[in-house]
Amino acid sequence: MSTKTITFGPSQLALEEPMYFRVETEGEIVVGLDVLAGQVHRGMEHLVMKRNLYQNITLLERLCSLCSNSHPSTFCTAVEEVAGIIIPARAEYLRAIADEIKRISSHLFNCAVIAHITGRGPIFKQAMEVREIMQDTKEAIYGNRMDLAANCIGGVRYDLTPESAGFLSKQMERMKTPLDALLRIYATDPAIRERSEGVGVLSRRNAVDCAVVGPVARASGIDYDVRKKSPYGAYDRLSFTTSVEQSGDVRARIMVRLREAREAVSIIGQCLADMPAGPAWADTLPEIPAGEAIAKSEAPRGELIYYLITDGTDMPVRLKWRVPSYMNWDALKVMVRGERIADIPLIVNSIDPCISCTDR
Amino acid sequence: MIEVLENIAAELNRWTGQEVAVTWRLDRKGVATGWCRLREAACILPAAQAVASMEGRLSMVTAYLPEVAKRTGAREIAYHFDLDGTTLTISIQLPPEGAQVPSLTTIFRNADWNEREFMELYDIQVTGHPDPRRLFLDESIEPAAFERLIPYSTFSNGASSTALWERVIADNARKEAP
Question: What would the pLDDT profile of A61-111 be if each residue is shown by its tens digit?
């Protein structure tokens, strides 16, 4: 059979951001894929070297929207590591709360998109309505529905009063039943199962080979979560389980994300219960000396790593980061091979790709 | 823990045939980061094999050319590897002109994008890369973009949708021309 090459863009793939794919097909079967990145390349690694460490907190939060808190919090951790700054215990919990709130919103958004692609409009609506509780929570506590502006070097820029902590706790209570319901629906809905089971499979071996991280890795049987493997902030004192699946298909990735969202609700509850009183940020900061540091975190899409080199001035000598989506794109080549062209949008969205993060 | 860390240094020594000193730092949570420098840039290949033999993963690659490097005459690349939660950074030095490094793609599949990215940003050649195309930057942008003064709007593909659209139209016109 002759091979035909088709170019897919964001509109065909139900993507929010521009990424292009050159897909080789034989009939309706995919035999090859090339990822064409760079459409939203903004030279951010160049920009961060033209701004001081404090300005970069604001810039990095604008790298992308869905994982926007992970960037400034991990960057601040890198600066704190270079300068030997110990953030207050309360700030560690407040950072975890902000990260987990973002995780729930991010995962629900992806699960909603998957329902949309499988033609299950009512489930899309239901998932987005549940997510709306999180959006309202962010708006009430941080004053914004996406970028939380929660982090600063030495701690966080917000605190929870007894009233706002009570509000957050009530909102988390409101999430429990709907999240359990969504888990049941995604696990049993015939249309979603039909489209997602055994589709876009990434075996454990291929997952290791592609070096994927986050829910994509965990759905392929790799039990790796930065919060467990390299604990940071409050995570060494929080009790939670990582969700791991073995089938490596689209369905496994959905289930991992939904369980993680449910687990995040429990983590936020623990933070509210265990968070000590005291300051939420360091009163005075030392000069940032010359040095280098690695900081990592488990962003909604997986391991995020920052590398910072400083020279004693406020300007970074080099600031580099690698987002989880970076390797996950490559895994698509394995996932789509042998699948139908019609399943490409579903498989691409099942890695929950972050394009602004990838291109930078 | 210390045993595991010592084993990493021993493996690096064995594979590279050189004395490789790894400095370990433990943060307050007990998470270790290892730092080492290789005397010869080409040794990054056996060093990567050592990491692979310990079931490590290539996490990120950072190439950089700070102002001070322009004076000292040495640019650097830092390879960051993950060993089950421990990050090992192996740095190599390269000359400012005519820098070459071997590709790690034969050992770590995900070296592909990392190497393509630093090839377009810095004046570094990667030997043996299976697909050395541009990754993010347009072909029209001069190579080694981080080492030149390039107008930001040229450097950034998303800077002007008009410019992008004009290029698409020009491309189409070229294709349609007999």
Answer: 998 888 899 999 999 999 999 999 999 999 999 999 999 999 999 999 999
The DSSP code for A320 is E
Most A CBs within 10 Å: which of B1, B26, B57, as the mutation test of the A interface? B57
Q: Using CA atoms, how far apart are residues A159 and A141, in angstroms rounded to an integer?
A: 9
For helices A89-117 and A162-188, the axis angle rounded to 10 degrees is 30
Quote the CA–CA distance of B90 and B23 in Å, as a whole number.
11
Q: Which whole-number Å values give the CA distances from A341 to A196, A261, A331, B123, B163, in the listed order?
A: 14, 30, 17, 39, 32
A70 token code pair: 């992970």
Closest residue in chain B to residue A208, using alpha carbons only? B57
Query: What interhelical angle do A89-117 and A121-142 show, nearest 10?
Result: 160
Contacts of B64 in chain A (CB under 8 A): 309, 317-318, 320
Pick the CATH number of B2-147 from 3.30.460.80, 3.90.470.10, 3.40.30.10, 3.30.470.20: 3.30.460.80
For residues A191 and A120, give the distance between their C-alpha atoms in angstroms, rounded to a whole number. 7
pTM, two decimals, is 0.91
Write out the CATH class of domain A52-334. mainly alpha
- The one-character DSSP state at A238 is -
**B140 contacts in chain A (CB < 8 Å):** none
Tens digit of each residue's pLDDT (9 = 90 or more) over B57-113: 999 999 998 777 777 778 899 999 999 999 999 999 998 888 999 999 999 999 999
Residues 6+ apart with CB under 8 A from A187: A193, A255
Domain extents in chain A: 52-334
- Domain parsing of chain B, residue ranges: 2-147, 152-178
